[in-house]
Amino acid sequence: MTLDSKIPSGPIEKKWDSHRFNMKLVNPSNRRKYTVIMVGTGLAGASAAASLGELGYNVLAFSYHESPRRAHSIAAQGGINAPKNYSNDGDSIWRLFYDTVKGGDYRAREANVYRLAQVSGNIIDQCVAQGVPFARDYAGYLDNRSFGGAQVSRTFYARGQTGQQLLLGAYSALSRQINAGTVKFFPRREMLDLVIVDGQARGIICRDLVTGKIETYAANAVVLATGGYANTFYLSTMAKASNATAIWRAYKKGAAFANPCFTQIHPTCIPQGGPYQSKLTLMSESLRNDGRIWVPKKKGETRKPQDIPEEDRDYYLERLYPSFGNLVPRDVASRRAKEMCDKGFGVGATGLAVYLDFADPIKRLGKHVIEERYGNLFDMYHEITAEDPYKSPMRIYPAVHYAMGGLWVDYNLMSTIPGLFVAGEANFSDHGANRLGASALMQGLADGYFILPYTLGDYLASTKFAPVKMDDAPFKEAQSGIEDMIKTLMSINGKKTVEEFHRELGKVMWECVGMGRNKARLQKALQEIPKIRDEFWNNVKIVGAANDLNAELERAGRVADFLELGELLSLDALHREESCGGHFREEYQTEEGEALRNDKKFAYVAAWEFAGVGKKPILNKEPLEFEYVKPSQRSYK
Amino acid sequence: MRVFHDSDTIVAEPWRTKAFPILKDLIVDRTSLDRIMAAGGYISAKTGGVPEANSIPVPKHDAEESMDAAACIGCGACVAACPNSSAMLFVAAKVSQFALLPQGKIERKERVLRMVEQMDKEGFGNCSNNYACEAECPKKITVTHIARLNREFIRAELT
């Protein structure tokens, strides 16, 4: 496999402009002759489908949800970045580019990141025109805030529900195209395979989740905008339905999977209440601005937190990091919390939580100030745990919440399979080893509104397409392959539920491939995961029927894929003998416990090529060059 | 569902309304709400051809009220709670969000007429001021938006 990133030549600030000029165009009257399949209609998918529909292409959009409104993009709270410099604090495209490359710990492609920063301003224009009610000041202009440790205020927000508002904006635009007939929307369809004809992605195999019917659809190009794979860890802040099946099946058809080990962990999530809890909830990390994190000094402490006197508390972050205290970066705060719990100091019923205490700031500033700052988060915590955080400390624990890795794409967002494009969290493109706050929404919409509509057109205009029919061999083979897989799954009739296997996988992933990774534990994961997978294929029980609405069967297919993806994730983590961004290898750290990169050996994108289930995938490397932002070591001391 | 005693009886049922056909067990088909959206729940702004964001100032009060309405997640609880199976809180939230913004005022007439027409076509009932929708709404959308929907509708009909 050769990885050609297709980065245009010329100075970085001119690359996208000159590329746009050089790309081929499709004549407006010819566009309706091209069909594009859009899998997923979250931020990236809905915005891309709407924009392509508007250009005049014939778009078929698929979602396993009932409505595009249900996509997990809706859950993003904080905001969306754009270097508008409305705050007059020295922001610029260049600064956002610089911050993103540095924040990604020098594992992202400079040209892609620069383009992202460049188009991000247009996203805000677009969203405002669509009626997204961003926060405003008293003059009626858009308000900005500083987010995720950025030194400038460049984050646009809509209360604590920016993701929801941007998704609804894209959904509105999509609805308009559905009404106009340029986009046909297929709800409750799950893509189960990619169809490749003569080396080009030409269609998909779907299951109608209501009737169970296996359907085939053909097109000139296929776009996957199906989100990230954080649910490999079982417990994450992702929606339960979020899965990796579309990108995984594409990987098995030949698309390279890049940097799977780059996953991000968020330190302030509401902890698991018991073993049967199946998802976690994220709370904005702004809570750490005032809250103090602590655990009891005594193992197995039974007193209520309010009754534990000061001298019996360990404010471990303040103790270990006197200058940064509770505001150490996400990964450091997360690792220390887990360490405390592993040593037996954890609190709550499961012992997997630490306290986040607001008693001091409430005493110092008054309850009303805390209420003003964090009221909605306190309410959310109260609703979920039935505990009042104004009276007793919150319990928090880290959780997986974003995947920087994904299918490898070139500058045009095309994967290693011609005609297969990947957008949003599903691709690996812009965040390197670590994503900055308020950048996920930015990337999803940049891909959908302003990049794919150009690059996809270029592909269509410059490619020759042979006519395809649904009864051509590649379609028939892919369809019968999926039908066989479903038949096999239904016929196992074992003793364990799908959920039990997912939980088992999640336990291994979290223990061995979670926050702190090391060689021994990663090797253990590589031994354990295939065992769970083997047992799954021999002992899973799926109730219900295949030709009916069957949530168990849906989950089974997704978990089967997680059981393979988890292995690749572990393998990638094992091979990357350095710490960078969200990937922390305990063997590679500075004396202060900071991530220690190895730029000489690992300044590359690891793009894995499928070689068969249980067989070692082939590693392809795309070297990363840093012409404009010179790598440096981050420091929080 | 949060507060109950041991051995209490909890009744779970699918959201009952003709416009949400039952698919299976507790799962209903709420795509009727999507069809209302497709009928007019948008501002017809094309990708790309839009002015700089700050060239459209919006009074803070209007932006806040628009945001109150935009909080609607389209879950359909309002419809299920309503004795008339009315979707007016949902439609009102969408109409309100756009009608309050300068960008949305241009198409306000066509929007409200088309959305209400589709709402009726889908078999949703009308509002008779029970306020059950407001009580159930997880996003705290208030019935004052229904009053605005009615005003928008009358205005569009008469002018």
Walk me through what this model shows.
The complex is a heterodimer of chains A (637) and B (159). Chain A is of the alpha+beta class and 637 residues long. Chain A is 37% helix and 16% strand. Chain A has helices spanning 12-22, 43-55, 93-103, 110-130, 162-180, 245-252, 316-320, 330-342, 359-365, 367-385, 440-461, 473-492, 498-513, 519-539, 551-575, 599-602, and strands at residues 35-39, 58-62, 80-81, 155-156, 183-186, 189-197, 200-208, 214-218, 221-224, 257-258, 263-270, 281-282, 292-296, 313-314, 354-357, 394-403, 406-407, 420-422, 516-517, 584-585, 604-609, 618-623. A 6-stranded antiparallel β-sheet of chain A has the order 12-11-16-15-13-14. A 5-stranded parallel β-sheet of chain A has the order 5-2-1-9-18. In chain A, strands 17-10-21-22 form a 4-stranded antiparallel β-sheet. In chain A, helix 1 (12-22) crosses helix 4, helix 13 packs antiparallel against helix 14 (519-539) and helix 13 packs parallel to helix 15. Chain B is mainly alpha-helical. Chain B has a domain at 74-159. Chain B is 48% helix and 3% strand. Chain B has helices at residues 31-40, 60-70, 77-81, 88-99, 102-105, 108-121, 132-136, 144-158, and strands at 22-24, 27-28. A two-stranded antiparallel ribbon of chain B has the order 1-2. In chain B, helix 2 packs antiparallel against helix 4 (88-99), helix 4 (88-99) crosses helix 8 and helix 6 (108-121) packs across helix 8 (144-158). The longest helix of chain B is centred in the C-terminal third of the chain and has 15 residues, at 144-158. Chain B is globular, with a radius of gyration of 17 Å. The chains are: A alpha+beta (637), B mainly alpha (159). At the A-B interface, helix 2, helix 4, helix 5 and helix 11 of A face helix 1 and helix 2 of B.
